[in-house]
Amino acid sequence: MDNLAIVQNVLKEFGKIIDLDSIALNDTGSCKLVLDDLEIHLEIDDATDSLMLLSPVAEGTEQLMADALELNLFWGHLNGCRFTLLRSINVLALLNRLPTTGLDITVFEKELNTFADTALTWKRAFNEMPVPDEQPTMPDCELQKQNLLNQI
Description:
CATH topology: Yope Regulator, Chain: A
Strand content: 25-35%
Helix content: 40-55%
């Protein structure tokens, strides 16, 4: 079975669970879920035989991008996800990939829940970050990282 068919079957089952009949990937192999205050984009990546989960978490600033690169080292706080820049819209997003091999509704639900929780946590943390002018004398980068980690 090809990647598109695998994911379409999983999404069909997921739609039944959440009472949504029309959840499916479009012709380009992508779709968007909106869960409360969180937007999650799903997209097939045939090159890696995976389903990408992508969620915007903050407007991109130079300092935030630099800090996000450092935060990518903290596997535990990111639950296997990574931050990435969506350059065309200047947004920092959280990204995870699920292998399509062995992907079923149980794996999808578990991974989607973990991803959504992680994205929402970081979205809130970034939105609650103090404005740089209000920060004490600690270097901006270090203080922002410390603030983020304290909020998690």
